[in-house]
Write a structure and sequence with these properties.
The complex is a heterodimer of chains A (about 290) and B (about 325).
Chain A lengths: L1 H32 L6 H19 L3 H29 L2 H23 L15 E6 L2 E6 H23 L1 H11 L1 H6 L4 H23 L9 H16 L4 H21 L5 H15 L10
Antiparallel strand pairs in A: 1-2
Chain B lengths: L3 H15 L1 H16 L3 H26 L7 H19 L3 H20 L7 H20 L10 E2 L17 H23 L1 H11 L1 H6 L4 H27 L1 E2 L1 H4 L2 H14 L6 H19 L7 H12 L14 H11 L1
Helix pairs in contact in B: 1-2, 2-7, 3-7, 3-8, 3-10, 3-12, 3-13, 4-5, 4-6, 4-10, 5-10, 7-8, 8-10, 12-13, 13-14
Classes of the chains: A mainly alpha (about 290), B mainly alpha (about 325).
């Protein structure tokens, strides 16, 4: 029992780390621009398909594909920012919410149109489906290597982003823009460029997460729906605009999902995550680390 | 009072003379099934009316009160399930089931939505979205109500009392049309009543509304109750029309979104908004689905997505094309 429980916790934490990276991207975009990017999960879907087609058509392993997909997503985001997001920022808030949602629906169904709704899975990757055995608390537990790699990569990407925002000059400019756009502009910061950077970095995050997912997870057009909703819950639990919050929120969601599914009814684990979300948002809308909007 | 009375007696005639556009629209809608006679065309028209009806219902809370609820499909589903299951379990006539579904939806919404009324803007939108998803997941896993397999309604001889028609779709069209006319009249009334002013005050600024003595939570609840009651009624019509319901078909996130997008595309918080949005969206969806290779290829929802993005170019909706000074001038010239 305890062995099984440890296994469930490990699995929850690994998934949590991946949710965290998606949530970090979402919270970065929110924090700097005040736009809730509901198309986030569908960009993740594009990332997974990008890695998948690189592997299938060109034989590039997802691990190397990471170096191609991430910059590609960054550039795609730049284009979308220039063409649509600049207008969405100026639109009334709820129109903006629906617009990003609509963009997600468009991308998702474009994927349906281009690649059909089939579930796909990549075989023969470099990491394969290896499993390592570890002993924790006297019991033997198994950790899937591709999942561990995805979780580790996600944590590394989060750490890198955190370092970038907290330690570099550009990162500080981003922070300043998030705090007060006008004041930042008066200090000589090109806030338009900061917005562009925040959006593209946020999308690059899901590019990383998506590519790492292709090593072990199914690839299909609807994959983003669950991820964006979970990331939203993670961001709310952590507090909108807080990177540490998103990280911890993501880990909490992963744990709730796997432990809740283990203890309760597995089919209702997603409902449990949403229920936690509703309770948090009603009782403490500013989240654990954020400030009230 | 004495002098007011004749004015009140004359009012209906003034109403029709001033708003002959209502009469024209009604006449056109009554005649439409005889202009386009194919069964598929009837199906599209029923879909248009159903979503115009749902849009009007959503408009009460989302448009006039400004509380963007994104979980209305759950109440649509509750309406569909209540009437269907009450018929199967207790033999309750679907017309009464429709009312019962509405009442049940109001009760459920009062319990789950009331705590959300404290939330603003996006938080409210996402919380209602999450609640809608929770209800869908509960229904999917609830054995008693058929779970993921859904509910199949038994076939009955066709009659208005049984709410089933097999040889023609026309009765469904006219039933939905009558309900549309009713909700249109109701929204027209609300728009001009004190309640309408309260709701719009809440939309403009909750703090200001509260400072003027409006019980914000109470009126949000009133608006939400109206809204979900009618949404559930539409659910019953859907169940009686398709005769098969399951959580995927009556409670998906996409339906919640469509219920919201129809009035927003037309013009949220306006009487004519849903009536403008529904034909454009539903005709585009149904025809693209029919022409471009059926459901699953996604073209229908690509159109929805593109329209949702396009709203940013015209946040006030299509109705704003008819509200500009240039249109007014042109309209005056036409009317002579």
């Amino acid at each position: 029992m305890s062995e099984l429980f440890t296994q469930v916790v490990i699995d929850g934490l690994l998934w949590g780390a991946i949710y965290a990276l998606v949530a970090v991207g979402l919270t970065l975009i929110w924090g700097v621009m005040g736009v809730l990017n509901l198309a986030h999960g569908d960009f993740l879907m594009l990332g997974t398909f990008g890695a998948y087609w690189l592997a299938i058509l060109l034989g590039i392993d997802p691990l190397i594909g990471l170096l191609i997909v991430t910059p590609a997503m960054f550039i795609l985001a730049l284009g979308i920012y220039k063409s649509l997001i600049t207008r969405i920022i100026k639109a009334p808030r709820l129109t903006a919410l629906l617009a990003t949602f609509g963009m997600g629906i468009f991308l998702r169904n474009l994927a349906h149109f281009l690649w059909t709704a089939d579930y796909r899975l990549l075989g023969d990757t470099l990491v394969g489906d290896r499993v390592i055995t570890v002993s924790i608390l006297g019991g033997t537990n198994f950790i899937s290597v591709p999942k561990l790699l995805a979780a580790g990569g996600s944590l590394a990407a989060t750490a890198l982003l955190y370092w970038f925002i907290k330690r570099t000059k550009t990162g500080r400019a981003l922070q300043a823009t998030a705090m007060n756009r006008q004041a930042a502009a008066l200090m000589g910061i090109d806030t338009e460029r900061m917005y562009m950077l925040a959006y593209s970095l946020g999308i690059a995050c899901v590019g990383v997460a998506g590519t790492l997912l292709t090593n072990f997870f199914i690839i299909f057009p609807e994959v983003g729906v669950m991820f964006v909703l979970f990331a939203l819950v993670a961001v709310t639990i952590g507090g909108f605009g807080s990177i540490q919050g998103a990280l911890i929120g993501g880990l909490i969601i992963g744990l709730i999902e796997s432990v809740g599914g283990f203890v309760g009814i597995p089919a209702l684990k997603q409902a449990l995550v949403f229920a936690v979300f509703v309770i948090v948002v009603v009782l403490r809308p500013q989240g654990l680390f954020g400030w009230a909007d | 009072m004495g002098r007011l009375k004749p004015l009140m007696v004359r009012q209906p005639r003034i109403f029709w003379r001033k708003n002959y556009i209502f009469a024209l629209a009604l006449a056109l809608l009554l005649a439409l099934p005889f202009i386009f006679t194919a069964r598929f065309q009837h199906h599209v028209m029923i879909k248009v009316l159903m979503f115009a009806f749902l849009g009007c219902a959503w408009n009460i809370i989302g448009g006039y009160t400004g509380q963007v609820a994104l979980g209305h499909a759950a109440f649509f589903g509750i309406g569909a399930y209540t009437s269907s299951l009450c018929y199967i379990w207790f033999g309750l006539n679907p017309w009464f089931g429709m009312l019962l579904g509405g009442i049940l939806a109001v009760a459920v919404s009062a319990v789950i939505n009331y705590p959300c009324f404290r939330l603003h803007g996006r938080y409210f939108a996402i919380a209602t979205l999450a609640l809608g998803e929770i209800i869908r997941l509960l229904f999917t896993n609830w054995r008693l109500v058929g779970g993921a397999l859904g509910v199949r309604l038994p076939l009955l001889p066709e009659s208005l009392w049984n709410f089933q028609f097999h040889t023609t779709k026309l009765p469904y069209y006219y039933i939905t049309l009558v309900l549309c006319a009713l909700i249109f009249a109701l929204v027209y009334k609300i728009e001009r009543s004190k309640l309408g002013f309260y709701l719009r005050a809440i939309k403009e600024s909750e703090e200001a509304a509260r400072s003027l003595g409006i019980d914000v939570a109470k009126y949000k609840l009133v608006a939400m109750s109206f809204s979900v009651f009618f949404t559930a009624m539409a659910g019953t019509i859907y169940a009686q029309y398709i005769l098969y319901i399951d959580p995927i078909s009556v409670m998906p996130l996409m339906t919640s979104l469509l219920i919201c997008v129809v009035p927003v595309v037309g013009g949220a918080g306006t009487l004519w908004g849903p009536a403008l949005g529904a034909p454009i969206l539903m005709v585009a969806i149904e025809y693209s689905r029919a022409w471009l290779g059926g459901g699953g290829r996604g073209v229908d929802y690509m159109i929805v997505g593109a329209m949702m993005v396009a709203i940013i170019f015209r946040p006030a909706g299509l109705i704003s094309f008819f509200q500009g000074p240039r249109f007014r001038q042109w309209w005056k010239r036409i009317r002579g």
